[in-house]
Amino acid sequence: MNAGKAITVRPTPMQKLENVVQEVLSPLGLHLQDCRVECQGSALDLTLPFRFANLPRGAKLSVHTDAQDASVPKEENATDRAVHEIFGQAAVVFSEAEERSADAASSSAAVDAEPDEFYEFTEGDYLVVMAGYASQREPPQMETKQMRQRREDERAASFKTVRLRLHLPEGLVVQSDFGSSATVADVRAFASRAFAPPPASAASLELWVSPPRTALEPPSLSLYQAGLAPAARVHVGLAGAEQGALKPDLFRLLSPPPPRGSGEGRGAEKRERGAEGAKEQAKPAVKSSSKPGDRAVPKWMQRR
Fold it and tell me: Are 111 and 57 in contact (CB under 8 A)?
């Protein structure tokens, strides 16, 4: 950020990332809508509070502007050039086994967790939650279709890129960046370049996300509309009796898995919450042995 300048901030647990970043950018004369914020190379959902952003303690966020990206030449080795030639854009190819190993290593080498007081429900958290409830009880503001579309367009524009990890057959993964306005058809065309011969038709290539398994349709659906921003995993397969194999060159162009950022797309969060909710409902109820009076009540909640 700003020629490599580093700024240290300590946000409150319920402070939204977009507010944290804007407080840093304002003294520098920068605006959030003109920048891209990443953690370990992956875009972040800035609408999340810090507590729910799944960021490790001491996380280092990088802020990029279009002008900065254009002025910094990107180093490209022979493997990068070969992969670019296959897919028509920058990408990284690696194996699922290596990805699992890298995830396990990063988990074991993770920095210390936040202290216990970080997860305490504070008076400030209470005020934020109650303000949210109050706004939900307010009568909804009348909006025209054009107003809603404009709001959605602005929201989509805040995700300048969407990072996808495409899980191909035979245990290969391809990671590449797409514009948030790119469509499912664009991703399908990208994935078809991995096969030799390519699928006979676009409909022969299936794209889906999980859990649960949900097909990415229709082809005109944008990545933002599909809930894949800012990052997501997409599974790729051949439909029906379609025959095909991955290009042999891909197995010779494997690289180490790049670092993974925090979180996946909005759609992934909704699917996972639904799956977890179903699991919780299926669990038998367990009676608590503790009495209501045994639970500690924060001082700020005690009746004065």
Answer: yes
Distance of CA 299 to the CA centre of its chain: 37
For residue 199, what are the contacts with CB-CB under 8 A and spacing of at least 6? Answer: 192, 205, 238, 242, 244
* H-only helix segments in 138-263: 145-158, 184-192, 248-251
Residue 181 Cα distances to 89, 92, 188, 222, angstroms: 16, 21, 14, 5
Domains, in order of start, for the chain: 1-73 (3.10.20.90), 77-111+155-280 (3.10.20.90)
Q: How far apart are the first and last CA of the chain?
A: 48
- Give pLDDT, residue 82: 93
Q: Of the candidates 63, 49, 54, 59, which has an alpha carbon nearest to the alpha carbon of residue 16? A: 49
Compute the distance between CA of residue 97 and CA of residue 95 in angstroms, rounded to an integer: 5
83-115: per-residue pLDDT in tens?
999 999 999 999 999 988 887 776 655 555 556
User: DSSP state, 211?
Assistant: T
